[in-house]
Amino acid sequence: MYRILVCDDEKDIVSALRIYLSSEGYEVVEAYHGQEAIDKVREMEIHLVLMDIMMPRMDGITAMVKIREISNVPVILLTAKSEDTDKVLGLTVGADDYVTKPFNPVELQARVKSQLRRYMMLGGGKVDDMLSIGGIELFDKAKEVTLDGEPVALTRTEYDILKLLLEHKGQVFSPSQIYQKVWKDVAFGTENTVAVHIRHLREKLEYDPANPRYLKVVWGRGYKIEEEG
Predict the structure, then answer these.
(1) 3-121 domain in CATH 3.40.50.360?
(2) Separation between Cα atoms, residue 61 and residue 8, nearest integer Å
(3) Contact criterion met (CB below 8 Å) for 2 and 73
(4) Start-to-end CA span in the chain (Å)
(5) What does the angle CA 71 – CA 124 – CA 59 come to, to the nearest 5 degrees?
(6) CATH architecture of the region 130-225
(7) pLDDT tens digit string along 51-62?
């Protein structure tokens, strides 16, 4: 699960963002001025920062510059329409993106997902218990799977098969090998059982199950997971 730090001196905005982001499955950490945001980044693992520019005690740009000294976490600035100069300055000194207030929740969601995906792909925010390929992410401690940031409900068996394949990307497993590793039992006449679960996984994780992007069959050998170039 990704942890997002929301920093704004207006408590109503922080509250609204917390409600919205929590409903999308993110863990939200709150701060109300720049120094508090810096302290939170020092204290815990933060995967993305949403920060207002105009704040008392320490403004968002000053805080972002200091955060850049200790972390490469993506920072999205929350700006007013009149703050064009500050937007440019923010992007120049290290912000990754900005969203203009009053923000559109759909736009905000898209910006957050885009920055998180980029951050994880670049390896800047490695999550020890996360396995991923393309838009598929598996969080083993929480036993959660998401597709493009949206939660996907898997059965325990489907989850275990997906985890096995993600742990060995590109490696082909025969139906017998999958059965032995997932069911912990002797594989005898189990090809259809495994095939049914693979089909269910494709229906849940592939936009076009008939032409899967990730879950591939290698005819005569078995199954693997890999991302098309």
Answers:
(1) no
(2) 12
(3) no
(4) 27
(5) 30
(6) Orthogonal Bundle (1.10)
(7) 999 898 898 999
